[in-house]
Amino acid sequence: MSRYEKLFSNLAARNEGAFVPFIMLSDPDPDTALDIVRAAVAGGADALELGVPFSDPVADGPTIQASHIRALEGGATVDSAIAQIRQIRAEFPDLPIGMLIYGNVPFTRGLETFYSEFQEAGADSILLPDVPVREGAPFVAAADKAGIDPIFIAPAQASEQTLQGVAQYSRGYIYAISRDGVTGTEKESETRGLVDVVNNVKRFGGAPILLGFGISTPQHVADAISAGAAGAITGSALTKIVDAHLDENNKPTDGLASAVTDFVSKMKAATKRAVG
User: Fold this and answer.
1) Looking at 46, 60, 124, 149, which residue is catalytic?
2) Where does the UniProt annotation place the signal sequence (predicted)?
């Protein structure tokens, strides 16, 4: 079984959903990013979604865009991201590690090299948010060859053809977005439509569904699980905590790790209440 399969099996046995925080690698620097990961795991994160900084993150709202910029201004590179993944994998051998990386990176490095180097570093899955499933065949082939789970986004208002493709080609999990637009807490997930979103994706089978976009409170997590999702992904709300604990030189201030752990703990607790 893959790490994702083991995770979802274990959570089902405990009557829980998954909480997956998004963390930008190298934000604001590699050492601090690793401390944030450790704090999130201490808070009960079931898996990780890690970002690789990119100069034109079109799927992200202003909060996560700022984290891309901070990391790049601090000298972040793809190679430094890979080094951080190796460290995280060494410290947490059983934790599923998903990557969110923009499509320019695999184009630049070459598909086979790209997927192989991330797999060797310890990543389990890769989501390319600017590569739709209709253009995904070469990426899926390279991912499968390297032993990486390809992840595709199921948009809230997707066509049946798109959803069928997402269900067919996603491994590990399906990233279903709870509302249209970019990432961010500026627009919350639309609770009333979550059941429809989840059921719309489930019609085509496939991997477990994680809901993202606008998930910023424990109630949002509980609503996602109640709607039938296997879990929820949060990015901007956690990134705002990081931003609030950086000084004018983007150096971490006291309380960052404890704030991250406290936030993740509360979000994780909501997965238990929702199905208990």
Assistant:
1) 60
2) none
Half-sphere CA count of 113, side-chain side, radius 13 A? 8
d(CA 223, CA 245): 29
Give the model confidence (pLDDT) of 204-227 as tens digits.
Answer: 999 999 999 889 999 999 999 999
120's CB contacts (< 8 A; 6+ apart) are: none
**Distance between CA atoms of 234 and 31, rounded to whole angstroms?**
22
Active site (annotated) includes residue 49 = yes
d(CA 267, CA 210): 14
Q: Is 124 a catalytic residue?
A: no
Q: Which listed residue (49, 124, 149, 223) is catalytic?
A: 49
User: C-alpha angle with apex 98: 93 to 212, nearest 5 degrees?
Assistant: 135
Q: What is the pLDDT of residues 99-110, one digit of tens each?
A: 999 999 999 999
Distance from C-alpha of 85 to C-alpha of 136, rounded to nearest angstrom: 24
